[in-house]
């Protein structure tokens, strides 16, 4: 079952007031107008999405915001930040003078959290945060900050997709075990959602909120929906030149 098969909880609508930005006109903006036949007076307007009241007034374990790049996910995410209880993944930061495992409140907590995000390498545990790879650093930051009312933007965007799925699997178990709640994940990716099994999915591509609290989101469906598809069309084939060497 896909999350889009879940009951529609409510719709997502644009705010009535736009966000307006202004820039100085110069030869570069003039060139952009010329190249794309675009009239520009230095002002841009964007009508961001508003957070549905139904979501503001409900308790949940996990919620996902998804949608194409530039659809307004990060702007919508800021609506949650109006509640002082929410914090981003930069809320707790590592001390660069310590090993990453030394930044937690006690050793057992460190092992549990680092294992939950799939960061199971002891040599990595004893390194400082600043020398970790992008993927290792992402998981280390999640381990340090996963808590009630945590917000994670660009969720799994910097890690391999298989690692993303296994990380979500571990994070779900950790959240269930520790009875955490009101955690928000935001990403343009959708392949991890069935592994995370959130309560709600806000999809800005469909402008709907899906209620997945009682749904059976299965891994097989997720794999099938994200498997690359190759379409061979005539427009492509006619550009192939076959030559014979003699």
The level 1 CATH classification is Alpha Beta
Number of distinct beta strands? 9
Which outline best applies? globular
Largest sheet: 7 strands, mixed
Task: Please state how the strands of the largest beta sheet are arranged side by side.
Answer: 1-9-8-4-7-6-5
How would you characterize the overall build of this protein?
The protein has 246 residues and is an alpha/beta fold. The protein contains 10 helices and 9 strands. It has a single domain (3-16, 50-229), classed as Rossmann fold (3-Layer(aba) Sandwich). The protein has helices at 27-36, 53-56, 73-80, 107-116, 122-125, 134-145, 161-178, 193-196, 219-226, 234-237, and strands spanning 8-11, 19-22, 43-46, 62-66, 87-88, 150-152, 183-187, 200-203, 208-211. Strands 1-9-8-4-7-6-5 form a 7-stranded mixed beta sheet, with helices on one face. Strands 2-3 form a two-stranded antiparallel ribbon. Strand 8 and strand 9 (208-211) form a beta hairpin. The longest helix has 18 residues, at 161-178. The termini are far apart. The model is unreliable at 223-246 (pLDDT under 50).
How would you describe this structure in keywords?
Rossmann fold; 246 residues; alpha/beta; globular; two-stranded antiparallel sheet
Briefly, what is this?
The protein has 246 residues and is of the alpha/beta class. It has helices at residues 27-36, 53-56, 73-80, 107-116, 122-125, 134-145, 161-178, 193-196, 219-226, 234-237; strands at residues 8-11, 19-22, 43-46, 62-66, 87-88, 150-152, 183-187, 200-203, 208-211.
């Amino acid at each position: 079952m896909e999350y889009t098969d879940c009951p529609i909880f409510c719709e997502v609508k644009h705010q009535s007031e736009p966000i307006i930005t202004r820039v100085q006109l110069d030869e570069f903006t003039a060139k952009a107008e010329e190249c794309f036949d675009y009239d520009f007076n230095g002002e841009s307007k964007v009508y961001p999405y508003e957070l549905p009241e139904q979501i503001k007034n409900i308790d949940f374990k996990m919620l996902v915001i998804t949608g194409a790049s530039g659809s307004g996910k990060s702007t919508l995410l800021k609506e949650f930040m109006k509640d002082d209880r929410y914090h981003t993944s930069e809320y707790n930061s590592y001390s660069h003078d310590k090993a990453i495992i030394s930044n937690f409140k006690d050793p057992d907590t460190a092992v549990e959290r680092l294992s939950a995000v799939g960061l199971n390498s002891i040599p990595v545990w004893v390194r400082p945060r600043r020398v970790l790879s992008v993927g290792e650093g992402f998981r280390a930051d999640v381990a340090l900050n996963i808590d009630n009312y945590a917000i994670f933007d660009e969720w799994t965007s910097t890690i391999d997709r298989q690692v993303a799925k296994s990380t979500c699997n571990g994070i779900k178990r950790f959240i269930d075990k520790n009875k955490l709640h009101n955690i928000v994940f935001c990403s343009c990716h959708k392949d991890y959602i069935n592994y995370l099994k959130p309560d709600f999915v806000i999809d800005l591509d469909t402008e709907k909120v899906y209620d997945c609290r009682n749904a059976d989101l299965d891994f097989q469906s997720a794999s099938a929906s994200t498997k690359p598809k190759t379409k061979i069309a005539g427009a492509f084939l006619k550009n192939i030149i076959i030559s014979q060497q003699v």
